[in-house]
Amino acid sequence: MHRLLWFALAIPALCHAADISLQAVRHGDSFEVEAAAEFEAEVPVAWGVLTDYDRLSEFIPGMHSSRIVFRSNHSITVDQSGEARLLFLSFPMQVRLEVEEFPYERIVSRAIEGNFKELLGAYTLEARGRRLLLRYTGTLTPDFSIPPLIGTILVRNTVKKRFSAMVDEIMRRQRLHELPAVAPSGSGS
Prior knowledge:
Layout: H1 2-14, E1 20-27, E2 30-40, H2 43-50, E3 63-72, E4 75-86, E5 89-102, E6 106-114, E7 116-128, E8 131-142, H3 148-178
Antiparallel strand pairs: 1-2, 2-8, 3-4, 4-5, 5-6, 6-7, 7-8
């Protein structure tokens, strides 16, 4: 029984079941990105993943740390560090985000410190029956140089990896949420 449970949890994690659409456009030094995915998940489960700021670095590629430094009502300050990579190139990212939560509908963040001149992002959640439409829109202007020929590719790849990881974690937690409670074994009869 335990082997079957482990197998059921491990196999879906190996495959990516949600189709993700992504666009990234460069305007001078700035980039605009949009990502969306529709998949089976409950809004509260997705909300729990999106707002799990202290654990984001456990499942988001290239994120080395993420921690809440201040919280008040629906406003949170989060410090994050990591890197964006493409082939042999690496670009460090350090940011302090001011995050506003509009429970179960939208999360809006903006950089207030770090190596971005501008970083604005928003996640929106829309229930569609048993399915969820998750969208991310963002505008970013790095405070470091990204070569023109690879900039859009770097941003697109980084956003796709991170958004995909977020979707995968939501789906993983949704599967755990749907598992029936297992009664403890080994008690005497």
